[in-house]
């Protein structure tokens, strides 16, 4: 396993990693034997990459599993699946083709000038420039502030938006997992709509008047940059605590049942919890801000993809929060608002039920710190494109999730 990781490491330095004939298969385990077969698959980034759930240990019988296999192992895997009599389907037949399509579009656009395009994916540099430009464009409604310096020395910025800066806070972060590109894209279009529609749309005006929105449009900047330059499938941060494997799953690095079930202590795992709590600078910064404004934060959302789910605490244990009924009710209304907007179906529930066990995740920690409305929201899609959601779906995702945000904001406003 480490041998392959080393190859990835070397290849990563030289050129953008290719995924020719890599396939994403959806597996349908129905027996304990199927389950152990899947769990025995090595969770190596080069050989087997769990897309949903995040790792092999979270797989359950009678629940579908999306896994990426490299071309080198694919034939063997399919043979074994047939031997096991496990049903599967090819979800993505050639991953590189989807990646090329995204990057081709990027090259086509490079020559074009004009206003910022919210319906495309942007690089780290472009997002940084956009944050600065946005703060300049709306000096009375938006303020840019330094949030953190990443492991590799990049700036992470925060935009605080709202009519005033001392209202109850709604805290949002996007892009904690690097390959989930739709997440930072959503943060950008959400901020743009809030700023451009202030004083025009009564709902936006109310949201901006009654709450102070602290938004980190791109949290895992190192990982994100790496997805553009080296490996589109990168998920973790870029900290190095191990000779062979790089990165920590920032959403396993918070101080809530840290290193417990649903997190890995193996540095090569995609769900590696890190060497210690808050080892990652961006996690430390987010934890600090939640500590700093403790008692004033009414809402917290971490945007992820994919699966279309409103996930509320707890994820680290089979346990419900005191306000579980409220969280369930708000999710239900938000999901209805989405369905009425774009007909997309979002499901909802406590993490232990709607997803799988996760220890050290941000929304459990935020809830524990007194944030009543604490969510992880998994954006589009349900697996057809997975992390490679086409740019043509950014707008629809923005439209539907904005309607959900109106529901969540109203709950936060009336809660205070
Ligand atoms: Zn994620």
TrEMBL record:
CDD domains, per the entry: M14_CP_A-B_like (cd03860)
Family: Belongs to the peptidase M14 family.
Residue ranges of domain Peptidase M14 in the record: 120-412
PANTHER family: FI01817P-RELATED, PROTEASE FAMILY M14 CARBOXYPEPTIDASE A,B
Signal sequence, renumbered to the chain: 1-15
Domain of life: Eukaryota
Species: Clavelina lepadiformis
Cofactor(s) listed: Zn(2+)
Protein name listed in UniProt: Peptidase M14 domain-containing protein
Keywords (A to Z) from UniProt: Carboxypeptidase, Coiled coil, Disulfide bond, Hydrolase, Metal-binding, Metalloprotease, Protease, Signal, Zinc
SMART domains for the chain: Zn_pept
Coiled-coil segments on the chain, per record: 78-105
Active site: 378 (proton donor/acceptor)
